[in-house]
Amino acid sequence: MTVTTPSLHLDQDASTAAMTGLRCLASDVVVITGRNLRRLVRVPTLLAFATVQPVLFVLLWTYAFGGAVSPPGVEHYVDYLLPGIFVLAIAFGASQTGVAIADDLATGMIDRFRALPMSRSAVLAGRTLADAVRNLFVLLLMTGVGAAIGFRFHAGVPEAAAAIGLALLVGVAFSWINALLGLLVRDAESAGLAGLLPVIVLVFTSSTFVPVATMPDWLQAFANVNPVTATVDALRALTLGGPTSEPVWPALAWITALLAITVPAAVLRYRRTTAR
Amino acid sequence: MPAADEWAILAEGLVKRFGAVQALAGVDLRVPTGTVLGLLGPNGAGKTTAVRILATLLRPDAGTVRVTGLDAVRHPAAVRRVIGLSGQFAAIDAYLTGRENLTMVGRLSGLGRGGARRRAGELLEVFELTAAADRLAGGYSGGMRRRLDVAASLVSSPPVLFLDEPTTGLDPRGRAGLWQIVNGLTAQGCTVLLTTQYLEEADQLADAIVVMDSGRVIAAGTADQLKARVGGDRLELRATPDSDPAALVAVVADLGSGPPTVDGDSGTVLLPVADGPHVLAQALARVAAAELHLTNVALRRPSLDDVFLALTEADTDHAEAVESR
Question: What is the pTM of this model?
Answer without folding.
Answer: 0.84
